[in-house]
Amino acid sequence: MKPGQHEAEISFNHIGSLQASQSSADWLCYNPPMGRREWLSGAVALMLVAGALTPLEGQRRKKKAEEEPPTQVLEQLPEPPAVVVADSTRLAFHLAPLSARGLLSRQVRDGIREIARQARGNAIVKLRAFVAGTGDLRRVQTIVSEEFAEKRVSLPALSVIQVGALPMEGAQVLLEAVSADRKTVNPGGLAFIAGQVATSEEASVTVGAMVRKSVAQIGAALRGVSLGAKDVMRVTCFVSSLDDHAASAQAVASEFPQAPATFVQLQRIPANPLSECEAVARLNEAPGNAVKLVNPEGLTVSPNYSQVALVGPGRIAMTGAQMAFGAKEEDVRLAFQRMEKTLDTVKTSQKNVFMTNYYPLSQRAAEMIRKVRFDFVDKAKPPASTLLLFEGLPSLDASLSIEVLALV
Description:
Blueprint: H1 7-30, H2 33-66, E1 83-87, E2 91-95, H3 104-119, E3 123-131, H4 138-150, E4 157-162, E5 173-180, E6 190-199, H5 207-224, E7 232-239, H6 245-255, E8 261-265, E9 274-282, E10 291-294, E11 308-311, E12 315-319, E13 322-325, H7 329-344, E14 353-358, H8 363-372, E15 384-387, E16 398-407
Parallel strand pairs: 3-4, 7-8, 14-15
Antiparallel strand pairs: 1-12, 2-5, 3-5, 6-9, 6-11, 7-9, 10-11, 12-16, 13-16, 14-16
Helix pairs in contact: 3-4, 5-6, 7-8
C-alpha cells in the first residue's frame, strides 16, 4: 500500500479489477475463438448463396419472359357444300345490285348482306359470283364462309367465275343467289330456259341487237310452254362486249320488266358480237312428269341439249362449280367423275341432270366437254345447257368448271 492510500481505496480498486477480469472472462466464455470462426464462415456462406440465387432467379424470370405465348389456333372456316338439295316449289331468285364501293372483299360482303336482306331470313342455298378485275377469286369463297359462319347459318353451294367486265366502272363482283322460302312460292314448279345464243360474223352489228334477238328467243321458249313475260323470275345475259350496254339492258327490261337481269362480258378482249341469255320462270301448273325436256317450235333443235327443262314440284340438287385441272380428255373426265360422286352423296346422278352450265376457258376445253359429257349425262334426254368461253376460274390450273341441277 502506498503512503497515504486508504485501505478502502485499495479495496475498491481491487474489486474493480476483479470485475473487469470477470467481464473479460465471461466474454471469452460465450465467444470462444472457435465459435467466432464458425459464425464468420456461416455468414460468408449465406452471402455467397444469396449472391448465387439472385442471378439464378433473374435468369428464371428472363427465361419466363422470353417464352413464346401459346399459339392461338384459329377456328377453321367451313367450306361451301359441293351440293345442296331444296324444294323447287320454294325457290326464290335474287340479284345483288352492282356497287363500286371498296375493293373485291368489301363488295362481296355488301352483296351477301343485300341478298340476305332480300331473302328475309330464308336460307340462301346457291350463290353464283361473277368477278371482274384483278382481285383474287379465292377470296370470294373465304368471305362467303366468314359471313355465313358469323351468322351461324348453313353455307350455300358456290360457283365463282371470272368474267371480262361488269356494267359499272369500279364494280368487281356480281352476285346471283337462290333462296329456299319457308312457304310455297312456285306451286307448279319451275322452267329453266337454256342460253339463247345470237351471234354475227359482222363486227358492225351491235351487241344490243344480239341481245334483242336472244330476248326474242326466250319469248318463243316461254310461249312454247304456255308461259309469259310476267312468269320470268331471272334473266342472265352473257355478252361479248358491254359497249352497247344501255341498249342491251333496255331490250331485257322492256320484255321482262319484273325480272332482275344480269349482264356480264365474257372475256376481256371482245370477240364477234354475241349474246346468250338464259332465264328461269315460274310454271303455272305442274308439267305432269317430274322433269319434262322441251324444244319449242321456232327454236333450234339440237341432239346435244334441250331448250327448256320443266321441273315439277319436288326436290332438286344444286351443285357448286366442279373444276377440271388441265384440258386433256382424262382431266375433263375426272371432273365429271367427281361431279358424279358429289351427286351420289344426295342419292342422285348425272343421268337425272336437267340443267347444266359449263365454264370452259378455251376452245379445247369446250371440245373436251362435248366429247366427254354424254358418258355421264343421258344423251337420250339431253339437259338444257349453257356453254360459253369465260375469262378465268379460282385456280390458275383450272381449264373449266361444271355446275348442274338434278332431280333427286
